[in-house]
């Protein structure tokens, strides 16, 4: 990359779990974290979205830290850059902002450092930083991902295209993932763990065969996390009742919450969104689509030529 040239990193946000797929299922959504990057004399982040202004604008920014740590792991030093950053992903609401930031940092290291990492290597690095593969997998691959993590080892299967609408009901209050994980039990009795696994298996089979009614039923039956988190997310039950009545086939807590995601058949999302927004004016209700592409690095032709040398 030459002085003055620029590349763009675009990463979708995501919703995790879809009810019983705790720490394992992720779905990429069409709200994006976008970085415009050019070489500079020192590291600097310029926030183009108001919400991002809470984050450091120097080298201590999380995305730069992720990039430097990733590059270091592969024995590489990154040249400093100016990053202009904007985001459509609400922060700390259960819509995968931290996972998108991690993927952005890894893509930054990969491109700037000529690391040529495979998607599997990127996922392994991202999942070990985030602690679970669901959101990072969706942000990286797009579509629906199902993954299993053991330290740095991740097994993942991704599916595209997945076609249904997603309506996100986003409260104004934040809920940090670590706080929402603190209310979960350390252990489950064997018989309950077996039941919880079976519910998750049926969810996946139902989603992939298009049996949305059954998928919705499984979302509600989750035993892993939603029963414990309802204490922190008292609106879950109300959103669930209203949106099932208004045509959603399923409802789940988005990641660790507090956002609730409602799933509707293709084409039904807009009217569901309109109805829910009227019924819950205090919430930010968004009609979203599934991102099928995952993270992207977009470069100019001149920059591409230089980069491949
Ligand atoms: N664009 C960003 N730049 C830097 N850090 C970010 C960015 N987006 C998210 N983060 C980090 O992720 C944290 C939110 O993570 P988390 O509590 O898991 O919420 P979410 O559900 O949105 O992922 C933020 O407090 C911040 O530390
Ligand atoms: N499986 C995790 C997902 C956390 O997602 P986030 O978007 O809330 O960070 C969990 O349920 O804790």
TrEMBL record:
Its EC number is 2.7.1.39. It catalyses: L-homoserine + ATP = O-phospho-L-homoserine + ADP + H(+). ATP binds at residues 90-100. Keywords: Amino-acid biosynthesis, ATP-binding, Cytoplasm, Kinase, Nucleotide-binding, Threonine biosynthesis, Transferase. PROSITE patterns: GHMP_KINASES_ATP. Residues 61-143 form the GHMP kinase N-terminal domain. This is Homoserine kinase. Catalyzes the ATP-dependent phosphorylation of L-homoserine to L-homoserine phosphate. Its main location: cytoplasm. It is found in: Cytoplasm. SUPFAM superfamilies: GHMP Kinase, C-terminal domain, Ribosomal protein S5 domain 2-like. The keyword Transferase applies. Pathway: Amino-acid biosynthesis; L-threonine biosynthesis; L-threonine from L-aspartate: step 4/5. InterPro entries: GHMP_kinase_C_dom (IPR013750), GHMP_kinase_C_sf (IPR036554), GHMP_kinase_N_dom (IPR006204), GHMP_knse_ATP-bd_CS (IPR006203), Homoserine_kinase (IPR000870), Ribosomal_Su5_D2-typ_SF (IPR020568), Ribsml_uS5_D2-typ_fold_subgr (IPR014721). It comes from Robertmurraya mangrovi. It is an enzyme of class 2 (transferase). One of its GO terms (molecular function) is homoserine kinase activity. Belongs to the GHMP kinase family. Homoserine kinase subfamily.
